[in-house]
Amino acid sequence: MKHRAKVVKVVNIGFVEKTYAGGRLRELREGRSMSQADLARLLEISPSYVSQLEHNTRPLTLPVLLRLTAAFGVDAEFFAAQDTARLVADVREVFADDLLGAAISQGELDELTTNLPGVARTLVGLHRRYREATENVLALVAEHGLDRTAAQLPHEEIRDYFYQRRNYVAELDEPAERLAVQLRLRPGEVRSGLAAGLAARHGVTVTTEGIEPGSDLHRYDPQRRVLSVSPTLRPGQAAFRLASQLALFEAGPVIDRLAAEGPFSGDTARGLARIGLANYFAGALVLPYRRFLGVAERFRYDIARLCDHFGVGFETVCHRLSTLQRRGARGVPFSFVRVDRAGNISKRQSATGFHFSRVGGSCPLWTVYEAFSAPGRTLTQIAELPDGKKYFWIARTVFRGVGAHGSPGKTFAIGLGCELRHARRLVYSDGLALGEGAAVTPIGMGCKVCERPACPQRAFPVIGKPLRVDENSSTLVPYPPAE
Asked: What range(s) does the HTH cro/C1-type domain occupy (predicted)?
């Protein structure tokens, strides 16, 4: 029975087809300081077989996979091929940088990320440092440019930190879930439960006085131990502010340790990291993992129903859905993005292989931008990337007012996407063709790195390819490539 359960799990994650996992197998072996001969004895196979597995000349079979999971205590998903999709996208962007003038074929890209993932990750990290250094040099020679660049880079560091963790922080998510049980937080009563917890556990009084509309959303006075929350916030928003402050009391040492150990460049980035980690804890406290995942599965990820059930907003639910990647209890792996009308991405997190470009903006054909033309409506799109991978996206606008007449509000488009193979789990796919005959929109990661030369929406020419320049003809394509 024990082996039968394991086989079912393997089948569910896609090991029916041939799976090559040489890089992950080598990583596992070297991490235990084992030789190929040691691993061969443990798995009861020949050393030459181990060598063939690590060089991807033979696929990983079910019997060998079961022995590996039993011997090393790893989840079978550790060897899943889709784990490299994010790394492939990152490395592709490195070689698409026109400043490097380099080129790499898809075959070479696959070989690098599959067989030498550590080298690929190091390459991506070095490229990011190179870009940061280049931006700083440009800032030094541009009038008033230094302060602007310095203010942007720390935020990028925080985004990278959560991206590398697949937007899941177990060190905070699990204790937040336990605290929600201790505080007996229930949907519809979260704000009052958090206020009671702040008072009972930390002697903090919560009030709505002292904050004018349009100023701070919340303010904590450590001397008086008073937490003031803006009266313009909706109950769910106010609960989140209370939870983020409670996070600093309850998980302060863990947050400090994570911020100190993270790859952050300075005090500004570490300070932003503490805020980001506290907000993560707050989301996990207001929407406890297993309870939220269970309801999400029961509602088939219907965001409107989840908002009503938990008493929080559309953006909060979407952001939490993108974090459900706990081992052994995973939800649909989502990518989450928030953009404004000008195309600026102010939030982006991903638990999938979908890659958000850092160069040249996002694709104008992406449904996230179309959402602004249909305020309040939930739009859907099947989007195909140049590598053939398809994603199912939903998008909707959200509006934030400040409560005072004449004061400008904020309008954003929220996007939530997953690989197309997960789409049938979502209520938004009902009635849509997802297989043959599906309406698919070809998109790219951004015009500067997109590999679609014939796209009529291109804002930049294809990097590394000559243009067709003919004064006697014109085309719909703005940057036609040479034949």
From this structure: 25-79
Point out which residues pair with 221 in neighbouring strands.
226
In whole angstroms, give the CA distance from residue 334 to residue 345: 17
CA 249 to chain centre: 27
CA distances from residue 75 to 6, 21, 62, 452 in whole angstroms, order as listed? 10, 14, 13, 37
User: Is position 203 within any domain?
Assistant: yes
State the Cα–Cα distance between residues 86 and 164, nearest whole angstrom. 10
Min mean pLDDT across 20-24, 192-196, 276-280 is at 20-24
Residue 462 CB contacts under 8 Å (≥ 6 apart), including other chains: 450, 451, 453, 479, 481
**How is 227-281 classified by DSSP, letter by letter?**
EEE-TTS-HHHHHHHHHHHHHHHHSHHHHHHHHHHS---SHHHHHHHHHHHHHHH
Identify which of 190, 378, 398 has the alpha carbon closest to the alpha carbon of residue 291. 190
Would you put residue 343 in left (φ > 0), alpha (ψ -120 to 50) or beta? Answer: left
**Per the domain annotation, does 305 fall within a domain?**
no
Residue 14 Ramachandran class (φ > 0 left, ψ -120 to 50 alpha, else beta): left
Q: What are the distances in angstroms from CA 407 to CA 137, 215, 375, 442?
A: 38, 11, 20, 39
> Is residue 450's pLDDT more than 80?
no
Q: Do 154 and 234 fall into the same domain? A: yes
Query: What sign for the dihedral angle of Cα 121, 88, 167, 216?
Result: positive
Q: What is the pLDDT of residue 255?
A: 96
Residue 149 sits in the same domain as residue 282: yes
The two structure tokens encoding residue 87: 């790394």
Q: What is the C-alpha separation between 478 and 469, in angstroms, rounded?
A: 11
The structural domain count of the chain equals: 2
Please compute the mean of the pLDDT values over residues 177-203 and round it to a whole number: 94
- 210-222 pLDDT tens trace: 777 667 888 999 9
Residue 361 domain flag: no
Query: Which amino acid is located at 145 in the chain?
Result: G
- For 69, the domain range is 2-79
pLDDT over 90 at 195, yes or no: yes
Question: 203 and 319 in contact (C-beta within 8 Å)?
Answer: no
Of all residues in the chain, the percent with pLDDT exceeding 90 is: 40
Average pLDDT over residues 231-260: 93
Annotate 424-457 with DSSP letters as a single string. Answer: GGSGGGTT---STT--EEE--S-TTT---TT-TT
pTM above 0.85, yes or no: no
| Pairing mode of beta strands 218-221, 226-229 | antiparallel
- Of 286, 318, 349, the residue that ends a domain is 286
Q: What average pLDDT does the chain have? A: 82
